[in-house]
Amino acid sequence: MTVSTRPGMTLERSIIPIHYNLKIVPSSINFTFLGECSIEICIAEPTYGITLNAKELNIQTAAARDHLSSGGYSVTATSVSYNVEEETITLQFPELLYVGTSWILDVAYIGLVNDKLNGFYRSVYTDADHNVHQLTTTQFQSTYARRAFPCWDEPSIKATFSLTLVAPQGMTCLSNMNVESTTILEEGMQEVTFFKTPIMATYLLAWMIGDFDYIEAYTSGEFNGEPVQCRLYAPVGLARHGQYSLDLAVQSVEYFSRLFNIPYPLPKLDLVAVPDFSPGAMENWGLITFRTYAVLLDEDGTNDRKREIAATVIHEISHQWFGNLVTMDWWSDLWLFEGFATHLAYIVVDELFPGWDIWSEFVKRIQEVLKHDALRTSHPVEVGVENPSEITQIFDEVSYMKGASVLRMLSAWLGQDQLLRGIRKFMLKYMWGNANTEDLWATLAEECKVDVPGFMGKWTRQTGYPVLSIIELDESTILIRQNLFLSTGDVREDEDTLLWPVPLAVSTADDPTPRNIMLNTKEMILKVDTTKWYKFNTGQTGFYRVAYPPKTLDLLGQTLRVKTGQTLDAANRIGLLTDAAALVASGHTPTSSFLTLLKYFEDEENYIVWAEISYRLQELFSVWLEQPAHIINALKEVQRRLFTKVVQRLGWDYPEEEDPATGNLRALAIRYAGRAGDPEIVAEARRRFRIFMGNRDMSAIPPDLRFPVFEIVLRTTVGVEEYEAIVNYYREAYMPGEKVVALAVMGYGHSAELIHKTLAFAMSSEVRTQDILTAIATLRSSVLGRAELWNFMRRHWDILYERHIDDIRFLDYFVLLGIGSFSSLEKYHEVQQFFATKDTSSYERILATCLEGIRMHILWLQRDREDVERWLRINGYLTTDAEEDLHQQLINGFTKVSLSSPASSLYTRPMLGHELPLTDVGRSRSNSSVDGFSSSEAYQTPRSGSSATSSCSSSPPSVYMQHSHRHRHHSHAHQHQHQHQHQHQHQHQHQHHHHQHQHHHHQHQHHHHQHHQHQHQHSPRLEHESPLYLEQVHHVPSHYYDNDTTGLTDNQIQILQFRQYHEQQQQQQQQQQQLCQHGIEPDLEVTMHQMNERMVISAATAAVAPRTLEREMELLHVSGDDEL
């Protein structure tokens, strides 16, 4: 099973380039340039025409000549035809061009120095002395080299390059190689020629012309025979702020030379901070380009910024070998090179900065891709692409972070030393050439003597990942079952046929060292002492979720409260927390269970764990944002109590020699306690803000606290004075980091006036195109901000679309920010209607993902709105009144019992089916092979997902109720034996409680028989299940149905749980059937192709929300990626 490497839009291989000789002469008058391109080509078949890639190039002349022929044979092209859709030109010649390797194709043309941040484009910046500087630069990945010169613009068609630039004297000219010569021309111009490059792909070529300062350093020369010159170029006055990145570059070049056992392949390495730059960074060979914010560090830069910059710089330098020296065959293998660069960057950061606990940071970071890969709109790691717009859309979290995650899982399985030995062998075998995924797996299998293709193929060619349900059979035996995990919780039976080879990495209280056991089947029986804690996915190296029984989760939770020598390290604590949160959002367990689990973390001291807690709380806030004020205030109180305790412990001041992680935690705690409205923290933030803004006293707000203080002030004021102070701070700041902080917090101004000011400012000339998203991202933090951003998006869409049509990343993120946070049916319909008449081909992946995400939010809110309110009351965050006597009764007599909320609050209301007319979106999980990449058929038979119950008590134990399928060898016999008997019992229960469930009664009767016959086979069973238990269900008094369990025995409580489970299952099945009756499928297929047609998205191209390059979205991370 292989991925197609020759899609329809690739060029024929009968003519290939050997060497390009380029001369670029920009015009300072009309933003055009004159290009002269001479290409040495090899013609394998006689031809009258030559087709190559070009876009927005005006061909002036073209001729082919045999430079080795005695008479200098030459033939001039008689015509040029342009294929705009395929971005090609075809040169027609009057004579047959014969087979040979001595042909040179000469093309003269005129191109555009555009303002679109790709191809050959222009930029401008103002220095600290208010001098204006012009510059031109390039960005060719993935298919933008064709905008600068005619070429074979594909990664597997490598060639060498010679480049000459004509520029004003005094300007710095840079390219991949060193300068070979400089010639002074007339009228103040110069001609700069660079040495010939090694053989490489077109997307790695780069050049720039402008005013730059630089700093330099050298490697030791140990691996190259002589020191390698490393420089960092930056806008005038900023180069000194690149010292941190330059030092990292020198260390990384030494490290990767040793790691790969291959010297750095070029004579120099330049890092360049570009004022206007779309991606976070780009690995051009020998000339790596960055956003200024991604590579320059303020003198008092925060610890988070240091980590972000380190990860970005090292990622790009790893590409100088893995990506540039060995290059992908086609863009379907993008994941391999981006995933490995990400994984290798973390290995290097961990070695250079062992105190950073970078792998816990990695575990935190992969939660975003775990979230998106649990949507039907995701795509396999290996994904086929046909055209340039699809290529750009796969620069996303699946390519980068899922790729890195499955490689880390492979490393844990093989051992890191074994993996790196295989990588060295792979690099030596394919250096200077191209390779694909199969080539790497074969090399690793040969080196490691294991079936690497068999293991990795399932993880890279199947969409999604599994959840492991753990069922305790007795005190020494458990059943492990893997199922497809979907965030919407509605996995169909036909989808749930996928299997993954899952490394269990199980550790226990008696043996904390993980056992390397592989789950290759649907189920496995394992011997484990269930009276003590045990944990799967130890170290969180596996790409899957785990659902534990409540007792086990309780035991794991108790380990979190051990003050000294915690049993679970930070990565494992994050895994426990995030798995619980994901199972809540998908409907496997109620949200109250997650809120209860947070009580275990009250004494947590690790910054990264607290950062994940904050993120999960903001995710909940985002979905609940439009709920009544008393609910939002109660949720804020939950947050305030958690984080204020940390602030009280750490205070506001930064002692000298303090651990950087402690400083990070202080800033995080102040931010979220202040965001929750803690009066003392708000007052202190305002006091410091006044001092800071009054006389620019930098000591009033340390760098780590600048963003939190600015945010708190804007969130808690309604006037414009503070807002204008921040705007002025932005205008005065020169360092990129200071500007980003000021720009990012503007969206927290929550009045209509301030929101309109922010939108206007974001679109003004004061904000660079690349920074527009930074300014508007935080508008999502308020109801009014979301509404105004959505209105703005609709009013100005056509203008913005035309302006940014060539910057697909901008469109992707703009769509995500504008609609991705919605959680109401009204907004869902508005989004559908708005985009129904738009050409969405360039952003269809992100639109599909957003729509499915909105649907997930709607289902979550409908399912758990009452559950959350009930938990808030029980735990003292909401005041109990006369209307809530039932809840008070629950507090008095039920707090110690692990029962769920009533089914009506835990699962989607049947009425939802009348209001949510969704169609399938994305690839079917049961047919997610990448072979052919064809769209799968939409499935018409809905199937309810597994459900669960959980505690809503105020104490942590029993966070989950067991929701997995209890599997017995004799289960089918029991199903047939008791089916009719149990149907009668179940129906009688509903009749008995007619008054309590009147609004559901007729619906339950209508669907009863077909539901029960189907669902009973998959119901979780009670411990020591027997026919007696099934009979006893009917004999629990009806008043206990309202959770008043006073006087019940433990046995009766368990019976009650079983009865409630069946009712919840019936309600969920009823809801799914009603959805189906109204033309609604449990997943989405949004279609959107032509104007005035229904929205259609190809399942073969549906994918998750893009996030390009390592740390590309630092601009949004600064504003808090919790603004979902």
TL;DR?
The chain is an alpha+beta fold.
Helix content: 40-55%
Distance between the termini: 37 Å
Q: How much is the average pLDDT?
A: 81
Shape designation? globular
- Poorly predicted regions: 1-6, 881-1059, 1075-1124
Mind describing the biggest β-sheet? 8 strands, mixed
Count of helical regions = 34
Whole-angstrom Rg: 31 Å
Class from secondary-structure proportions: alpha+beta
Report the β-strand fraction as a percent range. 15-25%
Strand order of the largest sheet: 5-4-8-2-1-11-14-13
Strand tally: 32
Oligomeric state as shown = single chain
Question: Which short descriptors sum up this protein?
Answer:
five-stranded mixed β-sheet, single chain, 32 strands, 41% helix, 34 helices, eight-stranded mixed β-sheet
SSE map:
Elements: E1 15-26, E2 32-43, E3 47-53, E4 58-66, E5 74-76, E6 79-83, E7 88-97, E8 100-112, E9 119-126, E10 132-139, E11 160-168, E12 172-175, E13 179-184, E14 189-194, E15 207-210, E16 212-218, E17 229-235, H1 243-260, E18 268-274, E19 281-282, E20 287-291, H2 292-295, H3 303-318, E21 327-328, H4 334-352, H5 358-372, H6 388-393, H7 397-414, H8 416-430, E22 434-435, H9 437-448, H10 452-461, E23 466-474, E24 477-484, E25 502-503, E26 507-508, E27 518-519, E28 523-527, E29 534-535, E30 545-547, H11 550-559, H12 570-585, H13 591-597, H14 607-624, H15 629-650, H16 660-675, H17 679-695, H18 703-715, H19 721-732, H20 736-745, H21 752-762, H22 772-777, H23 783-804, H24 808-819, H25 825-835, H26 844-874, H27 885-894, H28 903-906, H29 912-915, H30 971-992, H31 998-1015, H32 1027-1032, H33 1050-1077, E31 1087-1088, E32 1095-1096, H34 1114-1119
Parallel strand pairs: 1-11, 17-18, 18-20, 21-22, 23-30
Antiparallel strand pairs: 1-2, 2-8, 3-7, 4-5, 4-8, 6-7, 9-10, 10-15, 11-14, 12-15, 13-14, 16-17, 19-20, 23-24, 24-28, 25-27, 26-29, 31-32
Helix pairs in contact: 1-3, 3-4, 4-7, 5-7, 5-12, 7-8, 8-9, 12-13, 12-14, 14-15, 14-16, 15-16, 16-17, 16-18, 17-18, 19-20, 21-23, 23-24, 24-26, 25-26, 30-31, 31-33
